[in-house]
Design brief:
There is one protein chain. The protein has eight helices and no strands. It is mainly α. The protein has one domain: Tetracycline Repressor, domain 2. GO terms for molecular function: DNA-binding transcription factor activity; transcription cis-regulatory region binding. Keywords: DNA-binding, Transcription, Transcription regulation.
């Protein structure tokens, strides 16, 4: 998936896996179904990673970015156009579980009843945007400085969120 782009087909997947051309069709109707299954697994992995961080929004933000950087190809599949147009309920549920972890942490950060309705989406957009900028090499940041940058950005966001609560 990482190296084959839009021309990837189930037939090519079969050839790369060393199985018969019909084998992938026993599990997936289309290549988009395969992308959806891979993305769903990625979202479950991300949700597990975020859950392990507890309820600290800044820590979850850092975990989100680290996950993206350590799983770049998977992360791109998770948020790629083939995945975005999927209606697969398992994929939607898996994606929702990862988002819900960030949303719950944003709510806890602000306190009950005080949260702006857009705060969870803002938290996600912040860490996702930072992850994509880093993945695409758009920031002039050394590998050693990435954790410090992510820490500063997420802590600044959390401070702003608390100030408006």
């Amino acid at each position: 998936m990482r190296d084959n782009g839009p021309e990837l087909s189930l037939r090519r997947v079969a050839r790369l896996a060393g199985v018969s051309a019909a084998a992938p069709y026993r599990h997936f109707r289309t290549i988009d179904d395969l992308y959806g299954a891979v993305a769903a697994e990625g979202f479950l992995m991300l949700a597990t990673r975020l859950t392990a961080e507890g309820d600290d929004l800044a820590a979850l933000g850092r975990a989100y970015v680290r996950f993206a950087l350590r799983n770049a190809a998977l992360f791109r599949v998770m948020f790629g156009t083939r995945t975005a147009r999927s209606c697969d309920p398992a994929l939607r549920k898996a994606a929702g579980s990862a988002y819900d972890r960030l949303a719950e942490a944003a709510r806890r950060t602000c306190g009950a009843g005080a949260i702006d309705a857009d705060a969870p989406l803002s938290a996600w957009a912040q860490v996702h945007g930072l992850a994509m900028l880093l993945l695409d090499g758009q920031l002039d940041t050394s590998e050693d400085d990435i954790d410090a940058l992510v820490r500063r950005i997420t802590e600044r966001f959390v401070a702003g969120l608390r100030a408006t609560a």
